[in-house]
Design the sequence.
């Protein structure tokens, strides 16, 4: 890690140096997301598309579990590096690597043992169960590799190795994109093929990250020799990692709640929402990349107690993120119909999906505020602020809004629930930021 970048470089230069590689990795992930959705939709089987959509929250849950040690560990490590405690940061990185691998194996076993009841909870019916089960099964088998990916992916940036983190993401995603048509159509594996391609892509990413950690990293490690971790250090990791992971758990919950709310209207609505949510990731992934790409910069300066520089960094982050959110959301809303047409030629799905996608864009300004605030709380070790935002936007607040809106407005209430939840969560973010961060400067 180059201390000059974290301590003295102009804020905009330091921000883009760390965030752009993350965003590039996100853009490639976005490309995969779109290609994956394209190939699944091109099967022309609405029940297959709906089945994959119903099982998609499982993959999101695995990302959430990866974030416990990935984001939790990187938050602690970046602050330790800011305090010049490099050896402590190294120990933490070893624990997170092996903890993620062993935890992934346990999760895989649990997912396979409870496959049947979980598929029922996700909403799979007689028409979609076969496809949902195929996708679910192979994603579950790949759980250790998927969860492990997110530990070095996040922690390499604490050392300034953002480009290596990006290359790993791009490498796995390219493998995934290449294998998608081969597995789905060439081998005739359908929904299972999409999951298999995803797992193999993550395995390739893991192999690359191991090489980086053993050959290029100077401060991180996977060598268990002489390793130990204290209870206080583990508590710090979990205090940030669990709220960070809750964000993705809540994303899975939000997807599942939305799908179940739409089921009475038909599998076509579920399939259309599945495509709309994938297309919506165009905005979300870019915003997440910029918000969380700056996390090591925020954590380092918070750990160093450089409040003046921290204020400059956060002011820049909020302004840039909000302007970017409005711009991309406006373009996506205007281009909703042709964009949806890239995924499917089914006119009914396009007709249903366009208003879904536009409603998703309505709250993007508020999403930007929530993302930067969440990243700041995680970087600074403010566990409760991160926790409340994590459980709100697609969790507690969303569940309440969805219930009220669907009862009062029916189908349109379901479509508009996320935008209303985004607004309320942004208000909560402002209140929490004032209480947890801004008050320290006064």
Sequence:
């Amino acid at each position: 890690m180059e201390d000059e970048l974290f301590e003295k470089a102009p804020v905009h230069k330091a921000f883009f140096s760390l965030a752009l590689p993350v965003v590039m990795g996100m853009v490639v992930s976005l490309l995969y997301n779109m290609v994956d959705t394209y190939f699944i939709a091109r099967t022309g089987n609405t029940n297959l598309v709906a089945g994959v959509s119903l099982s998609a929250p499982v993959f999101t849950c695995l990302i959430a579990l990866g974030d416990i040690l990935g984001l939790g560990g990187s938050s602690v490590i970046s602050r330790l590096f800011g305090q010049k405690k490099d050896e402590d940061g190294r120990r933490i990185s070893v624990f997170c690597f092996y903890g993620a691998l062993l935890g992934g194996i346990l999760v895989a076993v649990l997912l396979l043992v409870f496959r049947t009841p979980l598929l029922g909870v996700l909403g799979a019916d007689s028409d979609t169960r076969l496809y949902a089960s195929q996708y679910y099964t192979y994603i579950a088998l790949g759980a250790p590799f998927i969860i492990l990916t997110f530990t070095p992916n996040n922690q390499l940036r604490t050392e300034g190795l953002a480009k290596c983190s990006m290359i790993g993401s791009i490498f796995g995603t390219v493998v995934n994109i290449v294998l998608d048509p081969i597995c789905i159509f060439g081998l005739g594996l359908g929904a299972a093929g999409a999951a298999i391609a995803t797992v193999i892509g993550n395995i390739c990413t893991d192999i690359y990250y191991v090489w980086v950690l053993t050959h290029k990293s100077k401060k991180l490690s996977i060598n268990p020799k002489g390793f130990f971790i204290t209870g206080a250090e583990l508590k710090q990791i979990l205090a940030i990692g669990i709220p960070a992971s809750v964000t993705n758990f809540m994303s899975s919950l939000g997807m599942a709640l939305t799908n179940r709310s739409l089921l009475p209207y038909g599998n076509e609505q579920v399939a259309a929402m599945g495509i709309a949510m994938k297309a919506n990731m165009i905005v979300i992934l870019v915003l997440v990349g910029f918000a969380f790409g700056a996390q090591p910069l925020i954590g380092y300066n918070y750990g160093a107690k450089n409040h003046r520089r921290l204020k400059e960094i956060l002011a820049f982050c909020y302004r840039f993120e909000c302007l970017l959110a409005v711009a991309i959301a406006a373009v996506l809303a205007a281009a909703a119909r042709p964009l949806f047409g890239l995924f499917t030629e089914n006119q009914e799905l396009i007709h249903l999906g366009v208003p879904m996608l536009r409603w998703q864009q309505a709250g993007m300004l508020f999403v930007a505020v929530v993302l930067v605030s969440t990243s700041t709380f995680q970087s600074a070790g403010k566990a409760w602020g991160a926790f409340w935002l994590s459980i709100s936007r697609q969790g507690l607040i969303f569940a309440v809004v969805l219930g009220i809106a669907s009862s009062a407005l029916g189908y349109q209430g379901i479509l508009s629930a996320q935008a209303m939840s985004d607004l309320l969560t942004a208000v909560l973010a402002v209140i929490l930021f004032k209480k947890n961060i801004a008050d320290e400067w006064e």
Notes: The CA atoms of residues 359 and 416 lie 6 Å apart. The chain has 19 helices and no strands.
